[in-house]
Amino acid sequence: MTGTKEALLTSAVMEYALRCLHEGDQGALRDMNFGPKEISALQDLSMGDLCHLETVRAHCLDVVLNREVYWPMLSQLKQRREAESLQHSLIQADASLDMMQTFFGMSGREYTRLRRTLMVRISTGRPAEPNDEEIDRIWAAWRTREDKLQDGLLPPEEYLHIHQETGAALRAVWRQTRLGLDFDG
User: Fold this and answer.
1) d(C-alpha 54, C-alpha 84), whole Å
2) How far apart are CA 1 and CA 9, in angstroms?
3) pLDDT lower than 50: segments of the chain
4) Residues 73, 75, 79, 82: what is their CA dihedral angle, to the nearest 10 degrees?
5) What is the distance between the alpha carbons of residues 109 and 130, in angstroms, rounded to a whole number?
C-alpha cells in the first residue's frame, strides 16, 4: 500500500527524531516538543513499527513554517541552481578545466564527469589559436566590461557572453584574456 501524505510526513519526522535520539541531539528533540515520556517511547520503536507508519491517515505533528529560515533557504537553493546552470552552460561552451577550477574550485574528476554527463565532445590536442581578428573582437568585448572586473577577472557569465558575442571559442577567450592580463600585470 502506498503511504498517504500524512504517513509520509509522520514517517519522515519520526525517522528524523530517531536519528536525533541516536546522535544524542536532545536540543532538536526538545525543539520538536519531545519530552522524557516521548523520548522513552521513541526508544522502544521497532523497525516494524516504522513500517506500519505507512498506513496512518493522520499525523501527530504541529507543523509551522519558520519564514526567517524558509526565505534564506529558498534563496540559497536558487543561487545553487543558477550556479549549476552557469557551470553547465560554461562546460557546454567548452570551458577549460583551468577556468572551472578558478571560478568553482572544480576538480579534474568533477570536470570530466560533468563533461560526460552533458555529453560534451572531448577535445584532443591543443585548441586552435585565435587569429588576429578574433583577438581584436575578444579584446573589444573585454574592454566594454572592464568595469565588472574583480581581481583581474570578470564574472564567469561575462566570459560566456564574450564567447557568444565574438564567436571565439570559450577556451580561446579565457586563455587570451588570461595571457593578456598576465602579460600586462
Assistant:
1) 35
2) 16
3) 1, 182-185
4) 120
5) 28
